[in-house]
Predict the 3D structure of the following.
Amino acid sequence: MDYIFDHISSNKSLKFIDVKTNSIYKLNELLLPTEELALKGRQLIFLYLSTSLESVAVYLSFLASKHPVVLLNNGIGAILKQNLEKEYKPSIIYDVNRNEIINYSLKEIKNKAINISVFINDNSSILVHETIRLLLSTSGTTGSPKLVKLSEHNILQNALSICDYLPINKKDIVPLNLPLNYSYGLSVLHSNAIKGGTIVCGLPDILTKDFWRCLDVYKFTSIAGVPFIYEMLNRIGFLKKHYPSLKYISQAGGNLSENIKMQFIDYCRENNIEFFVMYGQTEATARISYVPSDRLVEKVKSIGIPINNGKMIIDAETEELLYSGPNVFGGYAKKKEDLKFWETINPLKTGDLAFKDEDGFYHIKGRLKRMVKVFGNRVNLDEIEALLKSSLDMSLLACTGINDKFILVAHCEDALNESQLKKTIFETYKIQGPAIKFKRFDKLPKTKNEKIDYKKIAEEYLEN
Amino acid sequence: MDNNNQLKHVFSSILEIDASLINDDLKYQENPSWDSINHMFLISEIENVFDIEIDADDILEMKSFYHTKEVLSKYNLDFNL
């Protein structure tokens, strides 16, 4: 058995910088003695993480153990956290945002550099299939109990495939600017921990001056971003400035609009920066495909070619993009009983409709299910529609996506409490209020088969 | 509506919080709904409402309600600071 942690610990150039204290640590200085927790067998671990040095240290320490670990965002609300814990009954919880958790006692673990506390419940013992190593949520901040089951093999192989095409080397200084509970953010940590040099932890938000000061001070060699980050970078004048330390930038997590993508392509060419546009899903641990940076100009609309050891196929009948490779997950868990099983999934059905061009590059042309990605959050429109219908007790309502930017709620009410609806959607799906638009129809447009005509709804909205 | 109230109204509608809770101490990232996404929505709504174009460098300066007023004062908007 090949373990990702062994690959990480054999990277002798690996260092971690904590921005908050401006200190540098080697991997062995970060590792916490998790064996002192005296856990019997394999126990389920919940980690609520940020990108702080402590979060990275706690994660890597449990990665060095053989316990199955669930990674969650420490910013999710207390009630959502309690619901998740009630469902999965973890033995260990790491959460710096809470002082106490009912039925758990606090236990300190420390090394010379770091001192943390975890919540422990000795009576809890959930059976987890031996292949399951890591569990990630697909939604990020909504606290949904739906988790993606990943194996040691999944995470190692995906990290190695990423190392194969990204120009990661020992001199790199990479900022952790994406959450670690997000598969893309975690893949930045994994691939750089295996093959990179310095990893920068505890950074301030990218929309603060301090972040950009850190880029100058520490001389970041790369930045990873979802489409929204690129839109933001464009707006805050990134393209008008020069960052001599930057060697490459990467983009994943949805489709970046072509106009902005072109501006970044031009900028990168002028500034000798490589630009990697990539595609993937948490169900594939993170990465499925990438566009080689020297082909980006001619393949600006493409999601690229499969990563090393991965295979992409188009379903002849449905045109759905199918993927197989060593990074395909072992099914979803929605409740603790699901942790007993590991399913072999081959191929992974991506839910995206695609075609392959004459050069072997893949292109997305639509989605099989009614899914939209709003600021990196993948949401099922049918689910939102059902939520709104039940909370409003009304049937004449339809939700559709507008250019992967907005969700349009079409309705026939004269007086709709839009503010209340926005609140409901924000609380459940963490979709920001301004990303939700409303349009009143006298009658919702229908297709010939008497089904809601979502295309027509979107067209009518865009016409106005 | 004076500029102060108009700005409060923008914050209240974008962040979905009651206008009475908006004061000078309201800070970016400290209030859970004032995240980076809503920050960008705030910028474009402020541009619409006050009919100005906010300079790229100023976006990072608007880190609290007070700082936002300070920045907007540069665009000939008076907030009685």
The first helix of chain A runs from residue 4 to 9. The CA atoms of residues 160 and 191 of chain A lie 7 Å apart. Chain A has two domains: 4-362, 375-463.
